[in-house]
Backbone:
């Protein structure tokens, strides 16, 4: 359950008006968390709003409050079972101090030091905080690149027998799970396309974590369960570090012995994770079993797959089809691999999870190039969980906006500096075709997909999406 705070002024916590608000908030929250286990809270437009004396417009117009809130690193938070009024008071004390002067320690760590275990904070990175009109526009692609780099760094630390910084890894997962819970998973499905060129196997681990998080939310898991599922998915392929990196650069195929060694990566991944006492043993078990066929896994050694195993197995198999490895597996078109998985339901995959996967990615997954009934060409940017064959399509050939990579600066740019007050020109939104729209008579659909196009030199999905990534990766496109 998600609740958005609306409109608050934060006074010193001893102020009677604040105490009255906290008592009311606790009276509302306490019975809810006892019934629902957790409640998620989103911070809208980089400000935390709560019920208070000022109107929404007055709060947004108060520059002092805006400046204070935009310094705050708290991005999302979750209240869990057992929350007390003292926990709320401590939280707002920390939040107030953080909004005034960000501390060296993160708010989440400060709360843990004060003994608060019922409030889970997801923090924004300093680069995400408001920096004026000329601050770099961050997108989900920035998060994706950092997550991939973090995974590669963790693998290197394992390989060199160095301590692994799991805190940084958890921060990336917390950010993703909280954003998906509050805003939806749809933009994340474009990241594997935009991330082409990064390390393919590191991207695979992040992609599986994204799919697992979306499926866990759709399945109805609570926040703690989704976080655990996502981190398990993030580390499920850790055992691949036993495979020499040079193997992927060779011109000859792998020998039978080498392929047998590669197939042992799941066992090694389980052992690597079980050696870390700070991680729950479930992570090691899931890594060990993530390639096991579900019915066989249910009888082998008495292991019965749980929903975590079923979700990770489906997400791993689905994304594996998009990883190009000429010697280990054959690359498939993603709409075909989903069809293949559906044909093997009950045998290799759980039917309920496959239905959720189909609802999540659609019959035409994000990044698929298509030709429409009216002859226009486009690329899938949003799936439709209600009508799987009718997604949203970005009509890239009809987009008349200039390519930012091809733009040149004007001859005289001396006066166009931040100090001079220059403002970047905003582009109009790209042309998007929603294939559920009806024709004017209301007797049929206005447009439909007639064929899937193959990528080529002039039709590169990554380059097409890169052109409008700021808009396409935002949650404003529903």
Residues:
């Amino acid at each position: 359950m998600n609740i958005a705070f609306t409109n608050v002024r934060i006074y010193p916590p001893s102020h009677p008006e604040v105490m009255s608000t906290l008592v009311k908030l606790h009276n509302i929250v306490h019975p809810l968390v006892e019934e629902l286990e957790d409640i998620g809270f989103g911070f809208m437009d980089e400000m935390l709003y709560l019920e208070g004396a000022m109107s929404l417009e007055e709060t947004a117009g108060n520059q002092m409050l805006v400046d204070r809130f935009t310094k705050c690193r708290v991005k999302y938070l979750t209240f869990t079972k057992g929350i007390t009024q003292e926990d709320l008071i401590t939280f707002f004390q920390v939040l107030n101090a953080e909004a005034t002067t960000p501390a060296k320690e993160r708010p989440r760590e400060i709360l843990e030091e004060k003994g608060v275990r019922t409030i889970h904070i997801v923090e924004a990175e300093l680069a995400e905080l408001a920096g004026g009109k000329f601050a770099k526009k961050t997108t989900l692609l920035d998060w994706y690149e950092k997550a991939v780099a973090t995974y590669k760094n963790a693998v290197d630390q394992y390989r060199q027998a160095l301590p692994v910084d799991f805190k940084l890894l958890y921060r990336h997962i917390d950010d993703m799970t909280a954003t998906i819970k509050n805003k939806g998973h749809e933009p994340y499905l474009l990241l594997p396309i935009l991330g082409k060129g990064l390390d393919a196997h590191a991207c695979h681990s992040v992609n599986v974590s994204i799919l697992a998080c979306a499926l866990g939310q759709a399945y109805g898991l609570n926040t703690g369960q989704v976080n655990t599922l996502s981190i398990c998915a993030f580390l499920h392929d850790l055992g691949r570090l036993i495979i020499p990196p040079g193997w992927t650069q060779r011109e000859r195929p792998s020998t039978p012995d080498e392929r047998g060694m590669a197939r042992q990566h799941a066992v090694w991944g389980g052992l690597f994770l079980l050696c870390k006492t700070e991680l729950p043993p479930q992570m090691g078990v899931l890594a060990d079993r993530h390639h096991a066929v579900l019915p066989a896994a249910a009888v082998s050694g008495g292991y019965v797959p749980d929903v975590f195993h079923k979700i990770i197995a489906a997400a791993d198999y689905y994304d594996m089809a998009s990883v190009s490895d000429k010697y280990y597996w054959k690359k498939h078109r993603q709409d075909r691999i989903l069809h293949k998985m559906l044909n093997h339901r009950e045998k290799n995959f759980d039917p309920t999870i496959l239905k959720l996967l189909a609802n999540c990615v659609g019959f035409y997954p994000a990044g698929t190039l298509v030709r429409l009934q009216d002859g226009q060409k486009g690329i899938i940017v949003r799936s439709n969980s209600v009508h799987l064959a009718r997604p949203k399509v970005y009509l890239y050939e009809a987009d008349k906006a200039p390519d930012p990579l091809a733009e040149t600066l004007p001859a005289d740019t001396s006066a166009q500096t931040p100090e001079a007050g220059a403002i970047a020109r905003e582009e109009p939104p790209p042309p998007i075709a929603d294939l559920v729209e009806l024709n004017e008579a209301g007797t049929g659909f206005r447009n439909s997909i007639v064929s899937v196009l193959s990528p080529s030199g002039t039709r590169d999905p990554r380059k097409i999406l890169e052109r409008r990534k700021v808009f396409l990766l935002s949650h404003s496109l529903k």
